[in-house]
Amino acid sequence: MSRTRVLIATLVLFASLTHVIRAQVSADVPQQYRKLFYYSADQRKPYQKVLNGLGIATSQVGRSFALIAGVTQYPNFPVLERDLKPAQVDIEKLKSYLKDQEYFDEIVVLKDGDMNLDTLNYFLENYFPEQLRKSPHSRFLFAYSGHGYAESTDPTARGFLLTSSATSKTDPLNRIDLNVIRSLLTPDIDAAEKLLVLINACQSGAFLGRNSFGANPLGPGDRGAYAILASRKTQLSLSMSSVGPGSVFFEKIFAGLNGIADKSPSDGVVTYHELDTYLRSEIPYVTNGTQLPMEGDISRDGSVGEFFFLNRNRQVQLGNARTWNPGSLVTFGAEAGDIFERGQSAFREKRYGDAAKAYREAGDAGNPTAMFNLGYLYEKGMGVSQDYQQSRQWYEMAAAGGNADAMGNIGFFYDYGEGVPQDYQQAVSGMKREWRLVAQMP
After folding, report:
1. Higher confidence at residue 193 or residue 242?
2. Among 49, 131, 397, 440, which is 20 to 30 Å from 101 by CA?
3. What is the largest CA-CA distance in the chain?
4. Chain Cα centroid distance, residue 37
5. Where are the alpha helices (DSSP H) in 166-324?
6. How far apart are CA 177 and CA 164, in angstroms?
7. E strand or H helix at 180, and its extent?
């Protein structure tokens, strides 16, 4: 074989491998936008195989596209408010999850300074509508995490997302109107078969205009476009260390996708309505009712089909996906987080024995909140025999992990002499530790 033919064959092989690993961004994309592609590869075959295995789709399945947007740095804010670390975690987890667990073919990320009206306009009104039209039966996800606000609590009040150049959390200049975002999404709604919007921002409920619901088939041909917003127009969107390092909204989304939300029926996929039902139950529970997510149909004429994700645990069990591990972004590991969520679900359903088992597993894996919850079950004798000594031991491990409630409960044990000799000095010490830790919390 001539050197020329060898070179051509080598180039062809390299091109095919590049397509599998990371397809080249189309030459039609202007240079300034190419850097924003986090991932681009056609993965219809493995995704279709998974769906066929679940009995959902036997015909060709379209591609999966995502636009992840968010702001993690606000350099013009006061020094202590410039870094929005939960948004950073949300973005990194979304990138990892959509690529490795959901088989998304193209993922574009608009972060910090790149999250502006120009880039949103290009991708939402030009690039993605064209890609969606080229691939029938495709799904599109728009996800955002960052600061936002509404002008008032009036039902017609406008809502906004703050850009990285904002100077305050209610900056009237450096912002993007949620009505504009919704308008920019119109071509994607028209072109996608299934579309979902997820927005984590304070008062993000201002995005919605109307709510309506249709039937919920999953198969190709049934169109649907929905939105889930982290909070109502009058509420803040929270982050809580007891829930995870990201926002409460996205941490609970990832928890639901591990299989807990897959209930109606439990068929290997988590539909929009299943996820929404889980979030509307779970987020108010962990925030004591201070954050209530909102949802709505954003299609032109009412949705029939609905967006869906894969049940992560089911896909791992079937060998269709690897165990998801976002690494250092999760303080106690993804697996421990999943087990802890199963414990939470069992506790709310009053299956205390199952809750205790899950809390023990998650506690052994290093989750301080699971340790505290198991200590509580031992203290009350719920699902386990009442045992103050076991309770105190789990509380102490939780306290060592920084759980303020556990420190306070240890103080009460010494105050009342439950499982330990009554010792008021130790009681006061435990309570002071709790107060100090709480005082340091944001």
Report:
1. 193
2. 131
3. 90
4. 20
5. 178-184, 186-191, 248-255, 272-286, 312-318
6. 14
7. helix 178-184
Q: How far is CA 74 from the centre of its chain?
A: 22
Instruction: Find tokens 């105190």 and name the residue.
Output: 392
- Copy the structure tokens of residue 173: 């200049």
**pLDDT digits 0-9 by tens, 30-77:** 999 999 999 888 766 666 666 666 666 555 668 899 999 999 999 999
Instruction: Read off the pLDDT of residues 407-425 as tens digits, 9 standing for 90 and up.
Output: 667 767 666 566 555 555 5
Q: Which helix (H) or strand (E) holds 145?
A: strand 139-145
Task: Report angle CA 18, 94, 23 to the nearest 5 degrees.
Answer: 15
With contact defined as beta carbons under 8 Å apart, do 230 and 208 qualify? no
Which of the residue ranges 45-49, 213-217, 337-341 has the most confident prediction, judged by mean pLDDT?
337-341
CA atoms of 230 and 358, how far apart (whole Å): 27
In angstroms, the CA 269 to CA 258 distance is 10
User: Which pLDDT tens digit goes with each residue over 281-298?
Assistant: 999 988 889 999 999 999
- How long a stretch of residues is the chain? 442
Token pair, residue 340, equals 């802890």
* Mean pLDDT for all residues in the chain: 80
Consecutive H or E run containing 40: strand 37-40
Residue 401: which of 368, 371, 429, 430 has the closest Cα?
A: 368
CA distance 282 to 263: 14
Residue with the two structure tokens 């505290």: 372
Q: Using 50, 70 and 90 to split pLDDT, how confident is the model at 432?
A: very low
Secondary structure of residue 238 in the 3-state scheme? coil
Which residues, including other chains, have CB under 8 Å from residue 397's CB and lie 6 or more apart?
Answer: 363, 368, 371
pTM for this entry: 0.73
Please give the span between the terminal C-alpha atoms of the chain, in angstroms, as a whole number.
69
